Amino acid sequence: MKTEEPLIESWRNLLSQYSRVAHELDRALQAEHCLTMSDFEVLDRLIAADGCKARIHDLVGDLHLSQSASSRAVARLEKCGLVERAMCDTDRRGVFVTATDRGRDLHDAARQTQLAVLQKHLA
Amino acid sequence: MKTEEPLIESWRNLLSQYSRVAHELDRALQAEHCLTMSDFEVLDRLIAADGCKARIHDLVGDLHLSQSASSRAVARLEKCGLVERAMCDTDRRGVFVTATDRGRDLHDAARQTQLAVLQKHLA
DNA sequence: GGGCAATAAATTCACTTGCATATTCTGCTG
DNA sequence: CAGCAGAATATGCAAGTGAATTTATTGCCC
User: Fold this and answer.
1) What b/e string do you get for B43-80 counting C-beta neighbours within 10 Å, with b at 16 or more?
2) Strands B53-55 and A95-99: what pairing?
3) Which of A34, A67, B52, B107 is the most buried (most CB within 10 A)?
């Protein structure tokens, strides 16, 4: 099996490593915490933000998700009581999202799951 | 910004590199050849197979796609006339998929697109 | 040979996604 | 200050996805 293009070879490696880990992560987070990988990512960025609080607009940039997908991920988290929306006083177009206590707790737990999966499939 | 867990750091890098390249690839293949990244992958594996012919079952293993998604990708390619299905004589549960001439031509063209994108976003 | 677990593929279903659009609000500009 | 381009979200829609199920067929064991 010759390796015609090293570039294609790299891409295939990237693709299969990503697929393997992403699939496992998604499965584990879903099974143990009812969270999508995307949901977890949103929660994770939120927790990392100053005061566990950020505007959706600012989250989108980090998320590898479109604006609409991000908006809906926040909606899902809100429905689960992991996050709260609040009007932004200074700009009423904006929406602040804050992690609730349950959100923080779940994040702590999910983070352990994430680490375990990464340890196993990315190490 | 401290880097608490190198493992998480690696995962983030993997994720963002993958997202960037995959998004570009998908966009370019769609725009220039009306092909999904998955469609192209199926076609690509098929062309690589002996005689441009393979059973769906055998393709699935390489594809990073579920069996159902693979089945549908083949259906899409067939609808576009890039691929043909044929009963498998020795096992009538199986289905052989063969690339048509148009399929081979489109693959050649799409491969150039792929290389260009990889060159630009993975180099 | 008849029955039955296992296999290949297709299909149903619930869900997520991105694009395009609608809605609400801000900040200029005249 | 009226009007209007542009920004921040939400939503309608079409499409793709995986898990589970269905359908057809095979191969084995009695």
Assistant:
1) bbbbbebeebebebeebbebbbbeeeebeebbebbeeb
2) unpaired
3) B107
8 A C-beta contact, residue B46 and residue B52 = yes
pTM: 0.91
Closest residue (CA to C1') to nucleotide D11 in the complex: A68
**pLDDT tens, position by position, for chain B (123 residues)?**
555 789 999 999 999 999 999 999 999 999 999 999 999 999 999 999 988 889 999 999 999 999 999 999 999 999 999 999 999 889 999 999 999 999 999 999 999 999 999 999 998
Beta bridge partners of A85: A97
| Distance measured from the CA of protein residue B62 to the C1' of nucleotide C3, in angstroms | 36
Task: Supply B64's token pair.
Answer: 């990073």
Distance from CA of A70 to the nearest CA of B (A): 15
